[in-house]
Fold this protein.
Amino acid sequence: MGEPDGRCTIAVDTMGSDLGPTEFVRGLLYATEELGLDCDFKLVGKGRLLERLVKVRDFSIDPSKIQIHHASEVVTMNDKPIQALRKKKDSSMAQAIELLRDDKADAVVSCGNTGALMAGGTLRMRPLDGVDRPALGIIIPSRNKPFVLIDVGAIPDSTPLNLMQNAVFGSNYAKAALGVEKPRVALLTIGTEEGKGNSLVNATHTYLEQINGKVINYAGPIEGFQLFDGDVDVVVCDGFVGNIVLKSSEAVFSFVGETIKEELLRNPKRMLGAALSKTAFKDMKARLSPDQHAGAPLLGLKANILKSHGSSNYIAIANALRIARELVVHDMIDSISSDINQANDLL
Amino acid sequence: MGEPDGRCTIAVDTMGSDLGPTEFVRGLLYATEELGLDCDFKLVGKGRLLERLVKVRDFSIDPSKIQIHHASEVVTMNDKPIQALRKKKDSSMAQAIELLRDDKADAVVSCGNTGALMAGGTLRMRPLDGVDRPALGIIIPSRNKPFVLIDVGAIPDSTPLNLMQNAVFGSNYAKAALGVEKPRVALLTIGTEEGKGNSLVNATHTYLEQINGKVINYAGPIEGFQLFDGDVDVVVCDGFVGNIVLKSSEAVFSFVGETIKEELLRNPKRMLGAALSKTAFKDMKARLSPDQHAGAPLLGLKANILKSHGSSNYIAIANALRIARELVVHDMIDSISSDINQANDLL
């Protein structure tokens, strides 16, 4: 699909989220009413429940734009990826991917089991020609502007070719989702201790220099301490490092937040101060919240499959739907396909 | 040395710090007067300058406990590690290591060029028998208690043997520096996405299970989001991952701090609130400050060589001296030596 008039259809796996399908329908309402998202939606999940949930909400859009597809099963967080898809053929996740495969949708958004979504997406939709392995990209807030971190867990044992392709995926994702014309792509490394980088990163650096200026705009290596400086649009790393950086960064954020809270509650004077400056903390949280850029696409596939966090609230879900639409209307898949071929030829 | 009466001599490379030798002498004063550190100190650097700096401070300890060793050269941050040591034989860093080699000191503390210190330490003091490569361990604050992260940059391309040995180093470091009797040792990995761990970590896990209960107390794998939970005493990873985690965590901390500050200064009400709760932020910073546990040892060598951050203030320097003493009086080198032999035999 991906029709010339910019219309698009998103298949939404409404099950498998920690907050249940109600939050998905709230997210859909927020997307259409607050973000003004103009798409067709196919909600996949328990049919009667979804019908009721949609009915009680005050949607002002044409009712034909929201279709409901019944699926009797749910892939849970405990299901093993490949087994889940083989055994639960009528799960909301499998059915949503089926809509994509049958060209009845342009993108899938799911909060479900990441492994199952990745395995299902890869097996059913296949990687693009020339792509070695698809990678998960995620948008993270930093000083001045957000950036794409890729890969955050799809390829724990990466090769230099994987990292080079991650750079191409990430660059196209930043163009489509963040609207950056010429994304500055950096390579995450270490530098101040004895060894500079490791062998994987050093080999990748050579590859990135070879495609620089032709396929991507390579800004060179950066270190961990520069991650939130906001100087680059894409940071490339292997899935093991990316996953640990992402999760440990979230952990630092919570840990700092908790420590501040504890200290603020230690005496009445501090508590009064905290009460007066309460909105500052709220605004800070909103600025650093990942909700605005939720929806991590599995990049390198022949279709748009986006994973949103299992605990996504309605705002995160709405933004995942918004980003899914951006990828479709920007024909990101076509751009990645042509860039990957060009990049592979340059090595 | 490492004398039976618990006395110890620390050679201090007073040059190469961003804040200059003055800060080192302030750190020495703080260590002896405030922390009650009972050691002999050999201050290495510009002799006449050091003499003057010591003279003007109000040291109450026996003056013979502070000796000054003149060194005419300084290893700078821009010097290339191996060249620095070959060409600058009379640098404060080389001379401090020489004191260690000649058995005139039990430990070296330096804020200088990490690469040069690591290369110099490894070449002059040699790794212990059975040690493949030495690693850098660092103490990090977390909920409830601090933990050791190892390696933070010495071995960017690690093998499972390196990671197993890091576990042994880290366990002994936690015993000596943090006073933990049976440190809980965890392996940093990823787990929720498609692949669990990478091949390096999976092979290491098998090794750690083999030495569990005999050489270390293995608590199993943990993920990035658990890093600051305070459940374990040692977190093992390769130098590439550890360096990025350390530096990106510091970056998150600064980024969050700056964002809060910006928001607190946005209007007069918030500013008043911030003024009332000012001490909470100060206490939070003190709790999360790395100064209490400064001084990262290069573990696996035949001697105690500790690297403190280039920008260490006097409190950080004093604590690095304190930790150096702990490693000496606990005979950490002997314990590592015997544990490494036992661990190697178990594989």
Remarks:
- Residues 182 and 326 of chain B are 17 Å apart (CA to CA).
- Chain B has twelve helices and eleven strands.
- The domain at 1-131+300-331 of chain B is CATH 3.40.718.10 (Isopropylmalate Dehydrogenase).
